[in-house]
Write a structure and sequence with these properties.
- By secondary structure, the protein is of the alpha+beta class.
- Helices cover 47% and strands 15% of the residues.
- It has 14 helices and eleven strands.
- Strands 1, 2, 3, 4, 5, 6, 7 and 11 form an eight-stranded mixed sheet that branches. Strands 8-9-10 form a three-stranded antiparallel sheet, with no helix packed on it.
- α6 runs antiparallel to α7.
- The chain is elongated.
- The N terminus is likely disordered.
């Protein structure tokens, strides 16, 4: 949905364009405003595509593309601020040919939709966008659902039309929840999808309105394609013309069989093999338990930190914390102590209780869990039960 700041924002170009449109009146047949929807790319920040706004004025030789998705990884503390939900994005503009060449090089497709605005609306919109590009105005607080590069441009268009109440959408809703909409884009990268599903909690499983789902560029494009403007003059299509500027380049993808689901199955299988080896060797590989608890506890610490410290939406109400929480990290010293003392780790009942509570509550919580997480939890469960009952089951000497 966003794209890196790969070229300098051309403020001089914008200033010249602004002066031109200020001094020379815009003509309805000479100017055009169109929505540009770019197909998804391969980077994480490109998975959902991108939205931009093109303004052309053939009389004044202006062809510029505005976007609200500019950011720079070189910004001080960028990664940390992004984690905290304090990411500031920028609005900028480039000439049309530079924009096209960037996405041609990337292999993305671009769809253009000409928006029906009168000459005064076009001029007002252009002047506002130019004003937004000024150094003192160009930064805004980014929010990936409610204030991103797509919603900003949508709101600018609706503002010129007198608000959302003057637009009637005629197509059917495209998804029921935000999670379902996200998974339509992330399924091609299973590990990214798995991570997103872990971090985002129950809030994205609530029924979402059409307007909320328009944070996705493709959703907004499809909604506008059949939308009608309704006002005192009458009703007419919001989009007068739609065409493909660039066709996406199909890239050969190497299948990755080590998906989260397959990895979870391998972990469960490996855990069973470990227990079988322990039975045969009359040894307990307690280092393996430390690795499992460390992975579970670190994942839970990240989720808890995001839920309590991050300003990002939909990360605070996460029921995965029933099982993925920092408690296993606290149990590691206890486990080491029990191993040194050759004691049976009855404290594993805490792990059993967390897994059972997690699985038993799953049908009743308002959150959709990724399937692999149940297999990971099952590995923890069988390992904990094995420790509790190992003497009765296999009559092992402790060490």
């Amino acid at each position: 949905m966003t794209r890196a700041l790969t070229h300098t924002i051309k403020l001089l170009f914008i200033a010249i364009a602004f002066i031109a449109t200020t001094l020379l009146p815009a003509r309805a047949d000479e100017t055009q405003v169109s929505l540009l929807t770019c197909s998804p790319g391969e980077e994480v920040y490109e998975l959902f595509g991108h939205t931009a706004l093109r303004y052309t004025d053939s009389e004044n030789d202006i062809d510029v593309v505005f976007g609200y998705g500019y950011f720079s990884f070189s910004t001080p503390n960028f990664a940390w601020r992004f984690i905290l939900g304090e990411t500031d994005y920028m609005v900028g503009a480039v000439d049309y040919q530079s924009f096209i060449e960037e996405y041609r090089h990337r292999g993305s497709g671009i769809t253009e939709q000409v928006i029906q605005l009168d000459s005064l609306q076009k001029q007002r919109l252009f002047k506002e966008l130019v004003t937004n590009c000024q150094i003192t105005n160009r930064t805004y607080r980014y929010n990936y659902f409610y204030n991103n590069c797509t919603t900003k441009i949508r709101d600018k268009i609706l503002e010129q039309l007198g608000g959302a109440n003057n637009v009637l959408y005629n197509n059917l809703p495209q998804a029921a929840t935000i999670r379902e909409a996200l998974e339509q884009h992330t399924h091609i990268q299973p590990w990214n999808e798995f991570g997103i599903n872990l971090l985002l909690g129950a809030d994205i499983d609530a029924p979402a309105t059409r307007e909320v789902l328009q944070f996705l560029p493709g959703y907004l494009m499809n909604d506008l394609a059949t939308a009608q403007i309704t006002n005192e003059v009458g009703s007419y299509p919001l989009v007068s013309e739609q065409k493909e500027l660039l066709q996406p380049v199909e890239k050969a993808k190497t299948p990755n069989h080590l998906t989260p689901f397959n990895s979870a199955l391998l972990l469960l299988l490996f855990t069973m093999i470990i227990m079988l080896c322990e039975v045969r060797s009359h040894k307990i590989f307690w280092g393996y338990d430390i690795l499992l608890m460390a992975a579970q506890g670190l994942a839970g610490t990240i989720l808890l930190f995001m839920a309590t410290c991050s300003l990002h939406p939909a990360v605070d109400n996460n029921y995965l914390l029933i099982w993925l929480n920092p408690v296993p990290l606290l149990l590691i010293p206890v486990h080491i102590y029990y191993a040194i003392k050759h004691k049976c780790p009855t404290f594993m009942w805490i792990q059993v209780a967390m897994v059972v509570a997690f699985i038993a509550s799953a049908p009743f919580v308002p959150q959709h869990y990724p399937a692999p997480i149940f297999i990971f939890a099952a590995a923890t469960l069988v390992r904990s039960i094995f420790h509790i009952y190992r003497e009765r089951i296999c009559e092992l000497s402790l060490y």
